[in-house]
Amino acid sequence: MHKRLPLLSIFIVACYLVVMTIFFVSGMIAGPGRVYPDSSDEPTLDPDLLNATPHPAVNTPDTDNIVTVQMPEPVKVKGIYYNLWFPEDDALGHCIELIETTELNAIVIDVKDDSGLITFQTDNEMLAATSRELAIRFTDYESIHEMISDLKSRGIYTIARIVCFKDNRYANSNPSLAILNRNGEVWRDNADIRWLNPHNRGSWEYIAEICREAARIGFDEVQLDYVRFPLEGSLGTINYGEAAEEQVRYEIITDFVAYIREEMAKFGVWTSADIFGIVAMSYSDSRQVGHNVQNLLGNLDYICPMIYPSHFANSSNGSMGNGVGQTINGLLFERPDTQPYEVIYNSLQHFVRHIDEFSAENPGEEHAIVRPYLQNFTASYLREGYFVQYTPDVIKEQIRAVYDAGFDEWLLWANVNNYSAEIFS
Question: What pTM was estimated for this model as a whole?
Answer without folding.
Answer: 0.86
